[in-house]
């Protein structure tokens, strides 16, 4: 028989200087914590994989749209613009291939982490199925090591982002032929929200971030997520009266899962569920 009492630190039966707990309670706590941690990793990988797939579609759609615009605009001035059209299409295709390669490389890294997660889940299921408390306790450190190692890796594998591009001066071709040679592929500036930026910059208490009633959208949540990546002191996030859906919630949840704050293991998932149910008004606390 395994002893009724156990210490999660020293594994001894006599405990003079520190607390101990019943093995059944300790085992249940360990099982729940490990399960939550594995679920957190799964959520991060799923969110980032879905985002990668969406980016691939955006790259293809954007490239096809721009190519169509180039071909249509240059029809009336074919002799002058043939060479410029070729250069623009080549640039678009090169940009598409470059973006897709970068995204696919990132996706392969995520798939590697996903495979590692599956292996850990299988080990976890086997241990739980055996109902062997000794084996469950023995897996504490390996699972903790995996979680810590994977969390560090996920911090390194930050959610992939891309800068959209458009064809500058394309519409001017119908009126000014001499502008043809000035057409270039330029980056679209990233989404900005000055009111949000000032609200975050002027917050003196780093443990509380009040973003209520400033008409935030899902795009703004990407800016908030970047703030959460560096603000590890946050314990209270207020977002009353905003237009945030589950997409925006996923941005926040992913940042919180890889942020060493006091939100907790289940906080990110609670945030997603709350905003999915009611996308208008919420406050999130540690």
UniProtKB/TrEMBL annotation:
What the entry lists under InterPro entries is as follows:
LRR_dom_sf (IPR032675)
**Source species, domain of life:** Eukaryota
Q: What is this protein called?
A: Uncharacterized protein
Protein species of origin: Didymodactylos carnosus
